[in-house]
Amino acid sequence: MKAVRIISYNLRGCRDINPVIEVIRHWQPNCVLLQNVVQECWPQLCARELGGFKCVSAASVAILSNMELKAALAYRLQGGGTCQRVDIYSGEKRFYLINVALRGPFYRRPAQVRELIGGDILGEYPSAPPAVVAGDFYDILGISCHYNFNRKLQRYAPMFWRATYPAWLPLFSRDRIYATSSVAALATYIDYRRSTRKLGAHVPIIADIKVIDNRQTVINRGVKSGKLASTAAG
């Protein structure tokens, strides 16, 4: 499978979608995850202007992709959080792309995390595909210290000494990209350009990822069917 570039961009504070489109175009991503979409028409406008992108929206979040996109689902999390999940296909490989926008007071975070890493969203069955989880986690330490969350997902971007919020002087890493162990991060970036930092309250994060063939992992868990193992690795 070739490398896939993912950009996660929280549009809080953005007043004009056109400069945002130029930022996205600059990074030439395959998949775009948007949070805090102010106007319903913005995701479709982005998809049209970028060319060759499909778009699925839910509440104030959206996923765009120029790859094959199927099975779009939306979830309401406790405390006002929102989550999207789509299946992304690249050749014979498949992975979940999960767009997260957590909200609400700190004491709601454990319940939101339980929903996020539960079977319905992340998938706990043996044939579940690899997953990339990205977005606004609305949190500084709670997610980072959550044992079960960090046991299932690896943090790829940003590193602990880098931040995305507020854009004018980034101090906190609210926006993050995580993935399961079957996904390799080839490179990660944060768009700190001055022109980007003027657009809104957050700066976007970017990751180049590659899905590793997890057929052997699935077989080792007891799945003997070659057909099922092939599906899981897809």
Q: What's the end-to-end separation, in Å? A: 10 Å
Number of domains: 1
- By CATH reckoning, the class would read Alpha Beta
| Number of distinct helices | 7
CATH topology type: Deoxyribonuclease I, Chain A
Biggest sheet, in brief? 6 strands, mixed
**Topology as H/E string?**
EHEHEEEEEHEHEEEHEHH
Q: What radius of gyration results from the CA coordinates?
A: 17 Å
List low-pLDDT spans. Answer: 215-234
- The gross shape turns out to be globular
- Fraction of residues in helices? 10-25%
Classified in CATH, the superfamily is: Endonuclease/exonuclease/phosphatase
Percentage beta strand: 25-35%
In CATH terms, what is the architecture? 4-Layer Sandwich
Structural class: alpha+beta
Strand arrangement, major sheet:
3-4-2-1-12-11
Average pLDDT works out at 86
Model description:
The protein is 23% helix and 34% strand. With 234 residues, the protein is an alpha+beta fold. It has one domain: Deoxyribonuclease I, Chain A. The strands form two sheets. The protein has a six-stranded mixed sheet with strand order 3-4-2-1-12-11, with helices on one face. It has a six-stranded mixed sheet with strand order 5-6-7-8-10-9. The longest helix is centred in the first third of the chain and has 11 residues, at 17-27. Mean pLDDT is 86; it is low at 215-234.
In short:
The chain has helices at 17-27, 42-50, 109-117, 147-152, 194-197, 215-220, 226-233; strands at residues 4-10, 31-35, 54-58, 61-65, 68-76, 82-90, 93-101, 131-136, 154-157, 175-179, 183-190, 205-211. With 234 residues, the protein is α+β, with helices and mostly antiparallel strands.
